[in-house]
Amino acid sequence: MGYILLFLIGFGLSVSGGVTLIAYLNFLPAGLGWMDYLLFIKTRPECYLFPIGLVFMSLAMLKIPSDSL
Questions:
Q1: Chain CA centroid to CA 40, Å
Q2: What is the predicted pLDDT for the residue at 3?
Q3: Tens of pLDDT along 20-30?
Q4: Over the stretch 9-64, which tens digit does the pLDDT of each residue have?
Q5: How far is Cα 17 from Cα 49, in angstroms, rounded to an integer?
Q6: In this structure, what DSSP letter does residue 30 have?
Q7: What is the largest CA-CA distance in the chain?
Q8: How far is the C-alpha of 13 from the C-alpha of 16, rounded, in Å?
Q9: pTM for the predicted model, two decimal places
Q10: DSSP assignment of 26-46
């Protein structure tokens, strides 16, 4: 049960981080380049939710017992 909860928390974090990354893509038509975009999202803490969520989901998928499927 704990691994499912860890997976769902990771999923929620990755969704919120991914939505934030997509929302910040609106800076590209405003005149920023790709390098400026990458430097900007590096400074935003909410953009780190996406990789953290992916790590949580990966850990949950690796640790889940195979007999519970």
A1: 16
A2: 87
A3: 999 999 988 98
A4: 999 999 999 999 999 999 889 888 999 999 999 999 999 999 999 999 999 999 87
A5: 5
A6: T
A7: 53
A8: 5
A9: 0.83
A10: GGTTTT--HHHHHHHHHH-GG
